[in-house]
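During the reporting period the student researcher (J.K.) took over the structure-prediction task from the postdoctoral fellow and processed the backlog of single-chain submissions. One of the processed entries is reproduced below for the supervisory committee.
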Amino acid sequence: MSLFGQRKIIVEYDRSRIAKGFLAAIVVFGIFVVGYDQGQISSVVKGSDEAFEMKYLHEVTHDMRHAAGFPCH
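J.K. obtained the following structure tokens:
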């Protein structure tokens, strides 16, 4: 047996790549909420009948939706 028989391999992760992926996921989710959500997200909590009728997130992001150029009505 030699002293150099067992070596530990240290792997360095590219954290900027992970951060970019996480940020991209947040951006895509934000675009969905502002631009396209008509009650889908709140239907998980409130139930589909009430959520699709009230459109809570739609009403909260209504002005931002128009400023971003998304048509909604």
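The committee noted the following: The first helix runs from residue 15 to 35.
J.K. will present the remaining backlog at the next meeting.
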